[in-house]
Structures are given as structure tokens and as C-alpha cells.
Amino acid sequence: MKADEMWKVSTGEGIKVAVVDTGVNPDTPSLKGQVLAGEVPKPVAYKATEDYLGHGTTMAEVIAGTGAGGGLKGIAPGAKIIPYRIALKGLNSKVEKQNAPAPSAVIRAVADSDAKIISMSFGIDVDFPEMKAAIAYAQSKGKLMIASTGNNAETKNFIGYPAAYPYVVGVAAADESGKVGKFSEHGNYVDLAAPGLDVPTWCDADFRSYCSDTSGTSLAAAITSGSAALIWSAHPDWTANQVLASLIDTAGRDWAKDDPSTYLGYGLIRPRKVLENSKFNPGAADTDPLAKENARGVTGADTNNSPSPSASTSSQPPKNASGGQTSAAGSSSGSSDDNTTMWVALGAAAAVLVIGGGAFAVVRSRRGA
User: Fold this and answer.
1) Judging by beta carbons within 10 Å of its beta carbon (0-12, 13-18, 19+), is residue 76 exposed, middle or buried?
2) For the CA atoms of the chain, what is the radius of gyration?
3) φ/ψ bin of 300: left (φ > 0), alpha (ψ from -120 to 50), beta (otherwise)
4) For 122, phi and psi rounded to 5 degrees?
5) 199 pairs with which residues across the strands?
6) CA distances from residue 229 to 77, 82, 200, 318 in whole angstroms, order as listed
7) How many angstroms separate the Cα of 149 from the Cα of each of 1, 105, 136, 164, 264?
8) CA distance 224 to 247
9) Distance in angstroms (rounded) separating the CA atoms of residues 78 and 183
10) Beta bridge partners of 366
11) Closest by alpha carbon to 253, among 297, 190, 160?
12) Over 50: is that where the pLDDT of 100 sits?
């Protein structure tokens, strides 16, 4: 992703990202000074800075970690994090589960704040009306919402929410060469893809060490959130529609833009392509780049786990390391996978910024109408 080059233009300064997760520990070396705990509204602030799993802290670091003290350096180290804690798997206390705010209440609270991006690395195969209504409210307030698509493609490739809700950007996971992860759920609600395989994460809530080689769509969603922060910081007058349109327009793909993939959506994010062009045209401020998808809705998960042949790399970004065309089967890691469920299923914890890698070699399958 050539982060060092992007940071010459933008570090995400001035952008606040709401991380809706297991809470965020503001005291890790990488997050000191990065977490705005005081900006969490009291009705939904229950233990927002106490991470009971390590997952939310990892996501916050991948977005805005400074890298201090040997910690993770996020893709947008100039951005700030507003932490929110909801009841996900790993929260074992009955009392804490009861006191944790409902995700719909959190989304509405964020909608009324000055956070521009809502990062959601969790999911469930149930469409809750109150959550759908909260998402629509946040969209009306100009928020850019980004969510992981889920990690169960090899078992049950269910439709995952909130990624599948209208106005939410569903993000799939790929390895450093651009090969889609076998676990990464697919369907017509996948909008973009980002790195998400074989990377470190906090091992647990003790925050003593990082564990390596974890994979999941959580990382992909966090990197996409950080990428959006970089772009929005460089273009503070843009709307959420324009930031998203710029990510879609510059995504790495070798298929027609009007025929998105069920595995990688509109392609692999390349925020540097936006940042390196100071005169980039993001389109109209009030034009929803996902209008067609939002009007049509989800038509069902694509349960065919045999992708069509790999796309060629002719239109992909130049190689900056070993890379090239990969097989159609998708990338599968032998590493641990932190796919967790309760009333929602967390995307696998995956945490470090992947810089470099080969050309994006992609797997595609046409979306159904």
C-alpha cells in the first residue's frame, strides 16, 4: 500500500473514527494519546476503555496506532479513535452483557457525534430492524460506515450484518498478493477488499504480547476505515459519498466497474491513488456510489466456493515485491483464526498494517442481479 508515501500527503489528522467493538484499551504504547474516551456519550459509555478480548484495541491500533514502544503502527496514525464497547463473544459476565449498550444505540450515538467514520469489525446472520434503522439514521447524518463481511465462507457462507445493510461498506479480506481468503465470506454485499491474512494481533486482554499469523476480515475493515481517514483528512470538504467513491474508483481490479465481484467487490483498496492526485474528482457530493446495491438490497449469499478463474494482472498496480498471478482457489492460512460469535460474530482479529506485497491478483465471480 506504500504507506510511507501516503503519509507524506496525509496521516489522517483531524479525522475521528468510532471503533464499535469489544472496547479499546487507551494505555497500550501505540494508542497513548490516540483514544478520545471523553467523547463517548454517557448513555453508551459503559466500560468503553476496558477491552475484554483485545480485539477492539487491535482494530484501533490498525487504524490509528502510532507504533510507539514497538506497538502496531496503523494506516492513519494522525487520526483519533472514539471507543465503543458492545457485547460480543468473550464477554462472559452476565451483568456486563446486560449493561453493555445495544449496537443500535451506539450507532445512533455515533451518528450524533462528530466522528466521520464508523468501523465495525463484527457481524451476525440476523437482520435486526432496530439496527437497520440506526444505520439509516447514521447515513442521514453523513457518516461513512465500514464493516467486515465475516469469516465463515468455508463452512456456512451466510449473509452477514451489518456489512449487508444498505449504506454499509462490506469489506472482504485478501493476502498481501491480493488473493482472496478462503474464509472470507462472499456475496453481493461485498463492496471492497483489503489485506487481512497472516498478521499479528493482541493475544488477549492482558496485553502482554502480540500473536502472529491471525487472519480475518476484521483487519480488512480496519484498514479500509484507516484508508478512508487518510483520504478525508486530505479532502476535509468531501462527503462520505465522495470518500467512498474515490476508494471504489481507484480500487485494483481487472473487471468492469459496473460488474463487481462477489468475492472482492469493486476491488482492492488503493488509497494512495487518490492521495497522489491532488485534483482527484470524487464525483457529486450527494451521489451514493452504492445506490444500485442499496436500492436492490441483498439477494442472497453466493454459496459457490469454487470461484471463476483468476483475473489477469494486466490492469493491476505495478509489483513492488514478489507477486503476480495466483490461483483461483483463494488464499488459506494455516494460522489461527479468531472467529467469534455471540448474538454477533466477530470478524477474526487481525491487526498489523500490511505494507508492500505483490501486484493484486484477484478472484472474481459476477454478482447476481
Assistant:
1) buried
2) 18
3) left
4) -155, 165
5) 214
6) 10, 13, 22, 24
7) 21, 21, 19, 8, 11
8) 9
9) 32
10) 261
11) 190
12) yes
C-alpha to C-alpha distance for 222 and 18, rounded to whole angstroms: 11
Nearest to 162, CA basis, from 353, 365, 298: 298
Between 12-16, 22-26, 200-204, 230-234, the lowest mean confidence (pLDDT) is in 200-204
CATH of domain 3-346: 3.40.50.200
Q: Yes or no: say if 197 and 186 are a contact pair by the CB < 8 Å rule.
A: no
CB 214, CB 348: distance < 8 Å: yes
* Nearest one of 352, 353, 359 to 321, comparing CA atoms: 359
**Euclidean distance between CA atoms 313 and 362, whole angstroms:** 8
302, 368 contact by CB (below 8 A): yes
Residue 308 C-alpha cell reads as: 471463476
Strand partners, 301: 187
Beta pairing partners, 212: none
DSSP string over 264-292: TBT-B--THHHHT-TT-----TT--TTHH
- The pLDDT of 164-170, averaged and rounded, is 97
- Among the listed residues 204, 337, 316, 198, the one whose alpha carbon sits nearest the alpha carbon of residue 264: 316
| Parallel, antiparallel or unpaired: strands 144-148 and 117-120 | parallel
- Kindly report the length of the chain: 369
Residue predicted with more confidence, 212 or 348: 212
Give the three cell numbers for residue 81.
479513535
Residue with cell 449469499: 301
Q: Calculate what percentage of the chain has a pLDDT beyond 70.
A: 81
